[in-house]
Each structure stands twice: as structure tokens, then as C-alpha cells.
DNA sequence: CTGTTAGCGCTTTCAC
DNA sequence: GTGAAAGCGCTAACAG
């Protein structure tokens, strides 16, 4: 940190609630009531106050309000290297939803393993994105914080804390059924990162439907990936370099599906003519590659909105916090050009 | 908002600085000094205090500290639909850098046009991402806030406020020289969104080098894009559907370059055999498509770190704020598979 | 419907 | 090197 800490000799203006009260000829308390939209205030009084607020360009002091209300009006967002598309989509939803209730988002980068959570922030609630939502150290740290929290697409069910999920298994099952309906019999599968519950669920959905359809799963067509583009490249090569190969590959996310398409091209295979490729999530990349990817759209934005909503409800209403109402979102099959 | 607002009957723990002081047998003031790492305190005292802090699991109240210090320790980040890759990269840098000085980032979504900036947050400084950094209403609103701000890759030079830029013109020039060195003579260009200065600069760099090399610019090979994948698809079609076409296309960002590759494929052209395509930014998509894109890497993370650094310096030191030291970052040509 | 009093938890200032 | 008093700007709780 640099030098002397003398603050604000020119920053920050300074009209306080007292100034507004004086200008409007009322008490600070009345100003406070107007600002907090309490319905009791007379219309006339309200207007006087609002005028004074405008004249003085008054902006309430967040810290003072927080201190008095014993609330920070901040929600912490714990993340750790999600794909760019995922986090940016999530942020859009969460920021918009928080704004309505005057909540702001504070970002905390949480490389799992490091338990350096919340060095000193005081937030009213916390949202944990995968895979942080499954890091036990982080969860413990958040619980010690004593604030409500929401876990997004978590793996293990954990006593407290609300969970916002999608039914990964059902969604994966739907995708495999789609492939079978298309006439595919030999279907390859690229698994997701083993540190995420979604990976197991998606695989389970895949296997369930294959079994259901009486189709044997060729274990050498099921390979480990890690949700990254690179890992998809490797996995696809393993599957496609065999003399016999599947007619379709279901990758556990879009990045790996995109990589599979690229690998297919490299090996001289046309998509979808020679090989059908499908992904999961419907992140940006799904519409960016060529051919565009058939995938399972995860309603990330809606999930973010729900997370913020529920969190605010829990912050306001302790009862709600006692009996969290987990919610599960449904995915939508988005058919594009990579399947046939 | 839901129901009654009775707070924290079970959330929030509660050890205050007084409790710590009592436990350590010192005054609150001494605890404060220890916590703020003021060097005056005796080692013995310091240790007593630290032990009490640990025992009580004390975490300082951010709001109280902010109120007393007249500082929020929050930095606002104003954004408006940047590409996912851009914002997520920027966030990584900014969050990490802020952490070192106990600053946190608060996100504000600022659809330009709407001047709904900072409904009520009080931040110590503001970072404006493009294109918000060029929205005059937003700039005015931020100036009225009375806090220092940094603009990232801004268009018009504006009196106050620090600017973190790259030399778009020079970078674009370098890319065009690279293409010429590769033997290309007929080079197409897809412009960026006209609301961003970077677009004009990149085009200027393109034209300068073409002129420098004595190569005429075919105006029908220069078409308008808007930085989106879709706009790139359209632009590329315009250029490539002619009977004669350029041997190389320089798109003003990666999304449009990726779209150009896709469009080329659709038209039966091989990249780079039949057509060289290059982009700008080196965002995620550049390594995600096939063939991977040759592009100009913009050091987004470093720029984010610099922005936070400078902002904190300005917050702490008014003198620094008087004479902002703008900084310009250099880009790096990343050669991949889409050029030849 | 509006005002008064007190205090949130911390830090500043000034003593000692 | 440490402590006591006062106050940051706001709102809860109570009066009236």
C-alpha cells in the first residue's frame, strides 16, 4: 500500500442525513423513513424531504446504514475457475436480482484447498459456485461465519444451506434418448471432472438410458475428462483413434464437446455426417463453434436469480432459513447442427 | 422482499472489539492497533491480543471500520455485456489484486444509456470497463460520486480519471505486417463496434500498414461488425461471397474471427489453406475453435491488476490522483493454426 | 404521523 | 506504549 493514508481531501462530498433534515425542516428520523420507503410518512413531508435530497445530492452512507441495521447488504460469491461463460451468465442474473433489494455482490476467489475464505468481509449471505460448493473446508468456514448460504449444483447433500440444482441425471438421460432416437447405438461418453457431483450424475443418466434401451456400454468408449477444452481433446482422441468408433459422442460439457468436434475434424471426420457430437450446458462456445453444438441448456441465469432470492429471504426471515426449500431446475435440449 | 425483517436471531456471531479487549486485558484501542498492524504495540501485548482474537473467533466489523475511517474498502466495477472471456479474465486479476489491500469488488451492471449508476453504493473508487467507460452519462455520474476512477481501454480522452489502455493501433499494425510477411496482398478487415474507440484504432492500424506497404485497400473487403459472433458471420459472408475474395481476413476480435472461420467452412473453404483468418484479444474462444486462431493477446489480467493498484494509490494518496499516470500495455502476437 | 434518545463497532484525537 | 472520550452516519425503540 502506498504512502500516507490521509483520506478524502477532495473525494467524497458529504451531505449527511442531518443536512437533509435541516434543509427539509424535519428530523433525521423522518428522512430515514422516507429513504426506506416506510409508508407512514405524509405525502407533503415526503416531497419536502425528496426535494432536499435532490438539492443536496444526498447519497446515504452505506456503512452507517449497515452498522445501524446490523446488515451489510452484501452477498458473497465464492468461485473457483468456472468457465468464463458460466460465471458471466451467473453474474448477470445475480447482480440484476440483488439490485432489486439493494443487495450487492462481492466476489471472493476461492481456490479450493486454500481456506483463505473471507479474510475479513462481512456479508449477509454467501453463494457457493461449483466446485467450491463441495469443498468441505470452505463450507465449514462459511458456517462459522454464521450467515445463510446457498450452494449451486452441489455434490453431497449437506445438512444446512440451501441447494439450487438441476437434475443432471434426468437431463443426461434425455440427451441419450435423443441420440438413440436418432438411430445411434454405439455412443461414446466423455466424463466430467471427478470433483463434481454433476459428473457422476450425468454419467449415471447416460448408463441408465443405455441399459434401458438394451444397449451395451463399450467401456473403452467411456473416458475421463475434466471439463476443460484440453481434456476434451485428449479424451476424444482416445475414443476416435480406434479402428472402430462410436457414431455419436456425448461430452459432459460444451467445452469438451467443442474439443471433440475439433479433434474429429483433425482426424478427417465430418460432423455430424461421420460423427454426432453433443454437449451439455449451452454456454457461449456451443453457438460459437462450427458446426454449432446440440446441447442441454442449463438455466444458469435463472438459477442465479433464485439463489439471490432465496438468500435474501433467509436473511430476512429466520424461519425460512430453518427449513430451506431447495429448488431444482429443468434443462432444455437445444438442437443445433452437430447432431444427426 | 419477504416478510418480517427481524435480523439475526441465529446468524452472526458477535464478538466485538470490546470482547477481545476484555479477554486480552487491554483497551479496545490497543486491539485496534494490533489489527491494523501499527508498529507501536509491544510484542507481548500484540500476542495477548492475537490470542484473544483467535479464542473468540473475532472478525472485525467491516461496516464499523468503514464508517469510522470514512472508507468503504469497496471498488465498484461497472460493466455492460463484455464478452464472457473478457470479464472473467478481468475479474480474476482485479479480485486477486484487491485482496492484497483488503479491498473488495462490487459489481454494477450498467447498461449504457440507463444512468442508473450506483443506486446507493458507496465505493472508494470505480473501474469502468468498455464500453461503459465511454458513456458520458455514466462518467458524469461517477464524477458526481466524487471518487477516483479508472477507465479501461477508453475512447475519448477525458480530463480526469486514469486510463489503462493498450495501443490498439500499433497492435493492429503489427498483425497486418505479420500477414503481409506471410505473403498476403489482398486483406479483408472486419471492423469492431463503432461505439468503441478500439474499433477505430484497430482499423487505423490496418490502413496505416497497408498504405505503408503500398497495398491498396479494397473497400468492399472492409465491412462493419459489432464484436459479436453473429455480426462476424454476416460480415464474413459479405466478404467471402464475392467471386474474388481476399486471401486473408483480419477480424477486430476473436468472436468475429471464429465466425469467419465457421463461415469459410460453410462455403467450402479450408483455413488456412484457402483463407487465413486472424483475430484480436486472445479470449477463450481463440483456442477453442478449430483451427485455433492466430490472434493478438491483450493482457487483460495485467490491466485489471494495474487498474486496481492505481485506484488504491489514488484513494490513499490525493497527490497521485491529481496527476494520474496513465499506462499503456503491449499486446503479444499469438501464432496458432488459422494463419499461413 | 413525527421527534428524541441512545447506540451499532470501530477509530480518531488527545492525554498520560 | 497505552487508554479515555468522542464521534463517524444512520436507525431501533420508544414517546408524544
Give a written overview of the molecule.
- Chain A is an alpha/beta fold.
- Chain A has 3 domains: 3-60, 434 Repressor (Amino-terminal Domain); 71-166 and 300-329, Rossmann fold (3-Layer(aba) Sandwich), CATH 3.40.50; 168-298, Response regulator (Rossmann fold), CATH 3.40.50.
- Chain A has helices at 17-24, 28-35, 43-56, 62-69, 84-100, 136-145, 168-181, 197-212, 229-240, 254-266, 284-288, 300-316, 318-322; strands at 74-79, 104-109, 125-128, 149-152, 162-166, 187-190, 222-223, 248-251, 276-278, 295-297, 327-329, 332-334.
- The longest helix of chain A has 17 residues, at 84-100.
- The termini of chain A are far apart.
- The interface between A and B is large, with 79 and 79 residues.
- Chain A binds a DNA duplex (16 and 16 nucleotides) through α2 and α4.
Classify the oligomer: homodimer
Count of helical stretches of chain A: 13
At the fourth level of CATH, the homologous superfamily of the largest domain in chain A is Response regulator
How far apart the termini of chain A lie comes to 59 Å
Task: Write down the secondary-structure element order of chain A.
Answer: HHHHEHEEHEEHEHEHEHEHEHHEE
Largest sheet of chain A: 6 strands, parallel
What class do helices, strands and sheet pairing of chain A give? alpha/beta
Provide the β-strand percentage band of chain A.
5-15%
